[in-house]
Task: inverse folding
């Protein structure tokens, strides 16, 4: 997707969460939601993080974004017993003030174990000590960690499995190229075996069509996310269970 120029003035408060379901393919229901940042300008244009994060980095507002997004999401799900994930960056991992703020915010939160942070595989592999420190703090607060985009960058999957994470998310390209590339099939089989050994949940992400979904189900992967189920939306219709 080409990067669009943002010509309108905006503040961090104009960045809001959108929600995309992560589905349980066994129950055919929503397992949890991922919260994704979207900039909504005064002209009602919607921008992805890839189109506005560089502006926040330039103004050194990235940590403010993480805190604002977290507070918005925590409020949104406060009275609904549904698990949810939110993304944090490499810079967030080294911001002790931010991390302490997030964990303190959850001290009186109902069922804080519903909350998980997503860290990209590249960030986890490049910053192992920071990730271990963050996971340790999170576990004490009852919070989980997911490793996102596994398989999108070279690295030792066993190193990721040494981190006590709640789940991993397989990069969409692995499922997309599964049939035609033997190396991909071997890698996916290796990841699934390790996750089974370590009791780590696996999510196939960026599942865009029925063919990809069929592959996921043949691989006996329980959880999946992508446009085949729903695009990210600005609100969720909760139903009673």
Result:
């Amino acid at each position: 997707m080409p990067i669009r120029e943002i010509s309108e003035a905006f503040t961090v408060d104009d960045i809001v969460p959108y929600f995309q379901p992560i589905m349980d393919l066994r129950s055919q229901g929503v397992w949890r939601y991922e919260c994704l940042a979207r900039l909504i300008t005064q002209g009602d244009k919607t921008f992805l993080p890839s189109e506005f994060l560089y502006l926040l980095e330039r103004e050194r507002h990235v940590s403010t974004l993480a805190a604002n997004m977290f507070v918005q999401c925590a409020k949104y799900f406060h009275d609904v017993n549904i698990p949810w994930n939110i993304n944090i960056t490499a810079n967030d991992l080294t911001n002790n003030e931010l991390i302490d703020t997030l964990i303190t915010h959850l001290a009186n939160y109902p069922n804080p174990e519903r909350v998980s942070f997503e860290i990209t595989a590249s960030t986890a592999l490049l910053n192992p000590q920071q990730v271990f420190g963050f996971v340790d703090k999170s576990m004490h607060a009852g919070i989980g960690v997911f490793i996102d985009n596994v398989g999108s960058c070279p690295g030792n999957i066993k190193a990721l499995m040494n981190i006590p994470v709640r789940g991993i998310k397989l990069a969409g390209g692995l499922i997309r190229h599964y049939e035609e590339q033997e190396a991909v099939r071997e890698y996916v089989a290796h990841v699934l075996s390790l996750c089974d050994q370590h009791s780590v949940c696996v999510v196939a992400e960026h599942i865009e069509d029925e063919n990809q979904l069929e592959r996921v189900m043949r691989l006996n992967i329980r959880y999946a996310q992508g446009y085949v189920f729903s695009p990210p939306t600005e609100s969720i219709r909760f139903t009673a269970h």
Residues 182-198 form the longest helix (17 residues). The radius of gyration is 18 Å.
